[in-house]
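Progress report, Aim 2. The chain analyzed during this reporting quarter is listed below.
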Amino acid sequence: MKQRLDRSLVILLMIGFLSLTFSCSSDDDDDDLGNWTKRSSFNEEPRSNAVAFSVGNNGYMGTGYDGDDYLGDFWKYDFDIDAWQQLADYPGMVRSSAVSFTIGNEGFVGAGYNGDINEELSDFYKYDTGSNTWIPIADYGGGPRRGAVGFSSNSHGYVGTGYDGDGDKKDFWKYDPATDTWTELLGFGGDKRREAATFKIDDKVYLCTGVNNGVYVKDFWVFDVNTEQWSSFKNLDHDDYDDDYLDIMRASAVGFSMAGRGYIACGERPGAMKTIWEYRPENNSWEQKLSFERNARQDAISFGNGERAFVSLGRNGTLYLDDTMEFFPFEWEDEDDN
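Predicted structure tokens for the chain:
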């Protein structure tokens, strides 16, 4: 009888240990690293589909749609003092879904959509952050476009993909500020798409997400700004990847980078999302981070300088948002700071 009791006790202890181990592992899986801290809300109308770019420790944002009107105001967010300041209005037509890039201390903003005339746009303007002035530049070489992506090297800007009013696109064009000209670049072998996201790590620009003909795309590409060549990586549904990677597929997300890693945040598939994924270039892998700690959203904006990153504005259905959050990817969640 004693031997049977000893065996029963051992079995119960083993079951308890395995249950505790499994419970702790599950909790660890759910406790994703990352923290979001509330910052100053935007001063004026909540909006989605605004355009944004960053220069130094300042983020620049303007245009967009507030649920009733297309907008043309422009603003600066100062990372250090956590405050918004209104700037000179965007000089073109009011619009949403425009595209931007920066070269040096200048921002370039153009294309987009004006719902009042139900047309995509192709005009472009350069903004001087020092003098707070806008000047027109050559229209986008690819023609009218909305929902495109933009990025830059030290000397040139690049704009591509998007929707032209008839269908989704995959062409890319290079802007040369010295000659004020656009030149088409060949070599992108990915899917057509609109509302994609990019992030830049060193001299590489990574492109993923977006939607084509109502289907969320799964390919993943990188552009070398030195060689101006595109290379494909594994699709997000590749057999080597965990099925969880499929959650990365979405549209209308924001992309940004910090400390040598890239991030895809929020978006829609369909309906607003709040999950965040981190890309690690050293081993071409993704890791889920703590989800956005405010409303799920699509069509938001992001600012960043490589050391700090912010996500702001956007919408959840017909709820237009004006909050701003700063992301700390290597900290644990603090529920008291948002």
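The domain at 34-337 is CATH 2.120.10.80 (Neuraminidase). Residues 2-30 form the longest helix (29 residues). These observations will guide the mutagenesis work planned for the next reporting period.
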